[in-house]
Amino acid sequence: MKILVTGGLGFIGSHTVVELQNEGFEVVIIDNLSNSSEDVLKGITAITGKQPEFIKLDLRDKKDVADFFKDHTNVSGVIHFAASKAVGESVENPLLYYENNIATLVYLLQQLQQKPEANFIFSSSCTVYGQAEEMPITETAPVQTAMSPYGNTKQIGEEIIADTCKVSNINSILLRYFNPVGAHPSAHIGELPIGVPQNLVPFITQTAIGLRQELSVYGDDYSTPDGTAVRDYIHVVDLAKAHVIALKRLIEKKNAQKVETFNIGTGKGSSVLEVINAFEKVSGKKLPYKIVGRREGDITSAYANTDKANNILGWKAESTLEEAMASAWKWEQKIRS
After folding, report:
1. How far apart are the first and last CA of the chain?
2. Active site residue ranges
3. Can you tell me the distance from the alpha carbon of 321 to that of 337, in angstroms, rounded to the nearest whole number?
4. pTM for this entry
5. pLDDT tens over the chain, length 337 residues
């Protein structure tokens, strides 16, 4: 079966391509290389022994999207990662996020609804919960007013998918995941942000290797045990495997509804300082950091209740935070050597 992975050369996308190929799926990748590199293909091929088909394409071009589906009539499932994903950047440049995250989703669904049957896995986010009132967060927690344009695009995206699936032959699973970190244990692929990292872990590893002078910790006055923000950090390989399991659920017609939603996380919250400590422990390096003011759009705490994914999908996170940090450090050392 041929599976389209949009944004398949990105951080989560590339790891998911590996897991798909390991499970025998044929993969075609679409990526516009705005936050990724074609070199990632080499890493995927080194791990799996098979190079996936790659097409450089910007999903914001409606005609190009239509032409792709004319040329690839045998695509039986789509895993949609292609999107801008930095909370801070979305606050500064909201229109980029609304165009890149919403228009592209609409163009994809317009093509899929013309098929007699289509399976769609959506890369959603725990940001749809805003600052949830209770921890850990369950899938029934109310979707709060978004704290950032990025979070809002995920909320709107989920609504668009639900409305479309009601009136089409598309079946979808929305994976609301928490904070992906780490790298493939082979160190052939990992997180490779272009420019200054927007996420915590690559900033940690770049600081440790000497690329950044020091790490900024945004706020130490949150109502958490050590004052720093708490998140649920999930190893990217565990996250990638969840996408493959969800896709198989749709292909095998095991879904109970046209649209299903699952939290994908570890079920454990870790503060920024705890992440720094975990990195220092596995790397043996002391990390220079300073406390600065809070960042607009950030929430206090978010970690998942994963019972639904554990029990219904049969998926469970397996790697620890320390294992994730060790793999991220191995990857950083490799790409700088």
Report:
1. 38
2. 150
3. 24
4. 0.97
5. 899 999 999 999 999 999 999 999 999 999 999 989 999 999 999 999 999 999 999 999 999 999 999 999 999 999 999 999 888 889 999 999 999 999 999 999 999 999 999 999 999 999 899 889 999 999 999 998 888 899 999 999 999 999 999 999 999 999 999 999 999 999 999 999 888 888 899 999 999 999 999 999 999 999 999 999 999 999 999 999 999 999 999 999 999 999 999 999 999 999 999 999 999 999 999 999 999 999 887 889 999 999 999 999 999 999 999 999 999 999 999 999 8
